[in-house]
Amino acid sequence: MKALYLLAIALGSSVAAQTITFNGCHNLFDNQNFVFTKTGVDSFNKNIYITTPVDGQPCGGLGTCEFKIRWNNTLTRWEFLADEGNGTFTTPSLIYYNSTGNAGSQRPPSNTFGTWVENTAATNGQCGGNLTGTNSTMTGDVHSSPLATSDVTKSKIQIFPNPVSDVIRISGIENGQSVQIYNVDGRLVKSDAFDSKVDVSQLPAGVYVLKISTKNFESHEFKFVKK
After folding, report:
1. Lower CB density within 10 Å: C or N end of the chain?
2. Comparing C-alpha atoms, which of 224, 154, 217 is closest to residue 183?
3. Main-chain phi, psi angles of 87, to 5 degrees
4. Pfam families of this UniProt entry (predicted)?
């Protein structure tokens, strides 16, 4: 049997892993938490999340406790996949999919945004239907609105100066949790706890995306130029 614990991905001591915690479909997965950790970004700038099994924790039903959440660009939907039983995802089982207006975000939707549809062909209907806030929990690096933040809210948030040489300042946000900076290839190059002043002096000149995550799981993204 397998259990799931957090796979820590570190790009230095200051980097905080981006995780999603899921609990649901108890007939197949038992009543336990599964922690997905962001393992990278695909070619469509969508985050990829994978769990890691550890022997010792039961995981009835499918006989597997390793899962992946990823974007399927061909079918324009987010998918919740189970591995083949040996930790690989060459021909995974599709457990749920969500294709309701979620193409605009890097992160998958929560279980209350759009519809996570149960794939009964794989589950034999044992998950009890589509995911909802009453039959499951899905918290962490997920979004719950079409843009993950409203244009009105975003208009109140500013970053300056831009272009910037040393320190970029953030105004108009009170519940910030973390700040992350991605380069033009989508690679995470800096991650810290939220601060209204972000030191970018060590970054090479170029174009970057500053992502601000809040304590209620919203995100705000701004493009800036490092001189």
Report:
1. C
2. 224
3. 85, 10
4. Por_Secre_tail
Q: Please report whether residue 171 resides in a domain.
A: yes
SS3 77: strand
Phi then psi for 151, rounded to 5 degrees? -60, -35
Q: Diameter of the chain by CA atoms?
A: 57
Domain match, 23 and 135 both: yes
Amino acid occupying residue 210 = L
């974007």: which residue's tokens? 71
Is residue 135 domain-shared with residue 162, that is, in the same domain? no
Instruction: Read off the pLDDT of residues 101-136 as tens digits, 9 standing for 90 and up.
Output: 677 788 999 888 888 999 999 999 999 899 988 899
Q: Which amino acid is at 191?
A: S
Answer yes or no: are the C-beta atoms of 83 and 66 closer than 8 Å.
yes
Q: Which two tokens stand for residue 187?
A: 């690679």
| Residue 46 is assigned to a structural domain of this protein | yes
**What pTM does this model have?**
0.59
